[in-house]
Amino acid sequence: MGCAGSSQAKADGSAKKIRKPKPWKHPQPITKSQLLQMREEFWDTSPHYGGRKEIWDALQAAAEAELSLAQAIVDSAGVIIQNADLTVCYDERGAKYELPKYVLSEPTNLIRET
């Protein structure tokens, strides 16, 4: 008998499917370049939050891919999805990975650069 995140549990169809994050708003309007800088800083420092680098790399690839490819990436990496929008995930060893919404989608108050 395996834990809830074991491959046996995934085989019976209980694995969550990835979906797009719900619309969200940044505390203040930001430009696309500011958003990209925030994302770059997060991914550069993400291994320092704990967990395994290869899982962080897989999560980054999934966050930057279309939904169907993202699903294949997390499935092949053995990522256990807690929240379908990828904001909370675990690896097979139980390490927790939290992704901020700004690495998964754009805010509703994104402004054009002048």
From TrEMBL:
What Gene3D superfamilies does this protein's entry cite?
Ub domain-containing protein, DC-UbP/UBTD2, N-terminal domain
Give start and end of each DC-UbP/UBTD2 N-terminal domain.
16-113
**Any matching Pfam family:** UBD
* InterPro entries xref list: DC-UbP/UBTD2_N, DC-UbP/UBTD2_N_sf, UBTD1/2
Q: Residues annotated as region Disordered?
A: 1-31
Q: Compositional bias of type Basic residues: which residue ranges? A: 16-25
Put simply, this protein is called DC-UbP/UBTD2 N-terminal domain-containing protein
